[in-house]
Amino acid sequence: MALLLLSTAERGEVWPRVFAEAGEPIVVGETSVMDPAAIDHIACWVPPHDLSAYTGLRTVISVGAGVDHLPPLPADVALSRTIAPGIEAMVRDWVVMATLMAHRDMPTYLAQAREHLWKAGRVMDARARTVGILGMGRIGRLAAASLGNLGFRVRGWSLSGRPVDGIDVFSAAELDAFLGGVDILVCLLPLTKATHGILGKAVFAKLPRGARLVHAGRGAHLDMAALLNALDAGWLASAILDVTDPEPLPKGHPLWNDPRVIVTPHVAAQTDAREGALHALAVIRAVREGLPIPGLVARERGY
Ligand code: NDP
Ligand code: OXD
């Protein structure tokens, strides 16, 4: 049995080396598959459309942290998302950067610089701002710790409201209480049925006037029309987005030239090839030994 890798050329070079060191078989690319029944794991962003020939399939491994892009899988195939320290640290860094940019009015100053305009606004201390993080999972907790160290008041929101040391965490039912008083709203949620479109009119309306949005979750969390309305109404001051709906953001889209908005092209993180391969090896060993699968996605929750 072997793992089938369907991914980038770089991973296609690195994974076979890491697998060879571990003595595990790997097949790169669907055209190299001699016997589909001998494939027990597929690592990919998107799996083959028709999985029926892969009769020995045990797991599909998303090469990213998210799994929302994957189609429904057969019930007896486990789904694992890549757990890699590099992904988590990269997203944490992007969120810290974007939160500081939002806090220090960088969308305004970058727009002014394009006009050669020297015009100072009021400078605020980080300690005077509350950052609210939607999604207190692996990445949300890391971001919360770093932002707290910078002096921000940090609070979090998660499905369970599970406590996190030193941070007030609100549960799903406490969304309104969480949003009241949040100056910078950070989205680090997985995209599920329950979180689709969450960044919309109702949530924006619960934030104080002048709040800012930092978004590194998924494009479909965000109602882009509601964002533009909130910016135009002056309710939201700015938005820094790593993800949009659709992606890529089309040429000519109003957000590209909006002086209140900064867009990056879904680059908060990219999975390091070696770390991705190590995650896949951990999954293979766990399945073989009947141990808990790293990054196992709970199908009913969708993350
Ligand atoms: P985790 O699964 O570790 O954490 C998810 C968090 O979201 C948990 O705190 C969970 O609550 C919470 N949550 C899920 N559903 C709900 C809900 N309905 N209501 C309230 N809270 C909810 O995920 P990660 O931290 O590893 O990653 C988060 C997301 O970041 C990924 O799914 C992906 O979309 C995005 N991402 C973006 C990248 C980029 O480049 N822009 C790169 C990598 C990830 P609970 O704690 O109770 O389970
Ligand atoms: C991921 C991503 O999910 O890059 O890893 O968005």
Describe this structure as you would to a colleague:
- The chain is of the alpha/beta class.
- Helix content is 30%, strand content 17%.
- The chain is built from eight helices and twelve strands.
- Strands 8-7-6-9-10-11-12 form a seven-stranded parallel β-sheet. A five-stranded parallel β-sheet has the order 2-1-3-4-5, with helices on one face.
- The radius of gyration is 21 Å and the shape is elongated.
- Bound molecules: NADPH dihydro-nicotinamide-adenine-dinucleotide phosphate and oxalic acid.
- The site of NADPH dihydro-nicotinamide-adenine-dinucleotide phosphate has 32 residues, from helix 2 and helix 4.
The number of helical elements comes to 8
Bound chemical compounds = NADPH dihydro-nicotinamide-adenine-dinucleotide phosphate, oxalic acid
| Whole-number total of structural domains | 2
Tell me the structural class.
Answer: alpha/beta
By CATH's scheme, which homologous superfamily of the largest domain applies? NAD(P)-binding Rossmann-like Domain
Q: What is the string of SSEs from the N terminus onward?
A: EHEEEEHHEHEEHEHEHEEH
Short descriptors:
303 residues; alpha/beta; Rossmann fold; 2 domains; 5-stranded parallel sheet; 12 strands; binds NADPH dihydro-nicotinamide-adenine-dinucleotide phosphate; binds oxalic acid
Would you kindly provide a brief summary of this structure?
The chain has 303 residues and is an alpha/beta fold. The chain has helices at 9-22, 85-103, 106-114, 138-149, 175-179, 201-206, 224-232, 273-289; strands at residues 2-6, 26-28, 39-44, 59-62, 78-81, 130-134, 153-157, 168-170, 184-187, 211-215, 236-241, 261-263. The protein has two domains: 2-84 and 271-289, Rossmann fold, CATH 3.40.50.720; 86-263, NAD(P)-binding Rossmann-like Domain (Rossmann fold).
